[in-house]
């Protein structure tokens, strides 16, 4: 009985921890593309879009700081840390037109659970009216995930007004994100 309980606990831990990092990606320094130009997303499914928009891509945010949040609906870290931080950040910058927010569900597993419908539920649960996209479905890994070389979820990407990735890693604390965004906003844009 005791051995079965330990085995069950270990299995649960493996399942929980396994949902944070895709098995095909190593834990090496090949993650992220910090310092590089932000690639296009080519996301087909969106909701909460600005009026008149059918889709969005990185070029829509030129001249702005962009906080891009990558998640999966069933990811425990996304629910416990990522979404609350995203919610806090959107509140901090609610009156700042120089900072924008986008959330994209970057699916690499659990395709039947990590759906657009579930993402929509999360946007309501966390009172987020920012644009949400869906990248990856029906056995096709997320293109956003591949292009930005994310290591799983929750994943945060901060892109400067010139389209250069300045942060690209697992969850970032709100205070650290605020400091980085403040630093970026204080820099002189390339076109001045």
Q: What would you say about this model in short?
A:
The chain is an alpha/beta fold. The chain contains five helices and six strands, in the order αββαβαβαββα. Strand 2, helix 2 (76-92) and strand 3 (99-106) form a beta-alpha-beta unit.
Characteristic terms for this protein:
Glutaredoxin; 192 residues; globular; single chain; alpha/beta; six-stranded mixed β-sheet
Q: What proportion of the residues form beta strands (DSSP E)?
A: 15-25%
Structural class: alpha/beta
**How many angstroms does the end-to-end distance come to?**
70 Å
Helix fraction by DSSP (H/I, runs of at least 4): 25-40%
Query: Which CATH architecture is right?
Result: 3-Layer(aba) Sandwich
CATH classification class: Alpha Beta
Question: Looking at the structure, what is the overall shape?
Answer: globular
Number of continuous helical runs: 5
How confident is the prediction overall: mean pLDDT?
88
The biggest beta sheet is recorded as: 6 strands, mixed
Order of the strands making up the biggest sheet: 1-4-3-2-5-6
The radius of gyration is 17 Å
Integer tally of domains? 1
CATH fold group: Glutaredoxin
Molecular structure report:
There is one protein chain. The chain is an alpha/beta fold. The protein has a single domain (2-186), classed as Glutaredoxin (3-Layer(aba) Sandwich), CATH 3.40.30.10. The chain is 33% helix and 17% strand. It is built from five helices and six strands. It has a six-stranded mixed sheet with strand order 1-4-3-2-5-6. The protein is globular.
């Amino acid at each position: 009985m005791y051995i079965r309980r330990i085995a069950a606990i270990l299995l649960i831990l493996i399942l929980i921890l396994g949902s944070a990092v895709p098995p095909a990606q190593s834990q090496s320094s090949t993650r992220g593309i910090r310092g590089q130009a932000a690639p296009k997303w080519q996301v087909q499914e969106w909701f909460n879009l600005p009026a008149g928009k059918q889709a969005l891509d990185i070029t829509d945010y030129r001249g702005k700081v962009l906080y891009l949040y990558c998640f999966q609906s069933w990811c425990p870290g996304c629910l416990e840390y990522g979404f609350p931080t995203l919610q806090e950040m959107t509140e901090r910058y609610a009156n700042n037109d120089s900072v924008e927010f986008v959330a994209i569900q970057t699916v690499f597993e659990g395709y039947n659970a990590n759906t657009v419908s579930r993402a929509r539920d999360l946007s309501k649960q966390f009172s987020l009216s920012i644009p949400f996209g869906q990248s990856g479905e029906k056995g096709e890994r997320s293109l956003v995930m591949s292009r930005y070389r994310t290591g799983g979820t929750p994943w945060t990407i901060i892109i400067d007004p010139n389209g250069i990735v300045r942060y690209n890693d697992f969850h970032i604390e709100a205070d650290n994100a605020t400091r980085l965004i403040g630093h970026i906003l204080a820099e002189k844009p390339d076109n001045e």
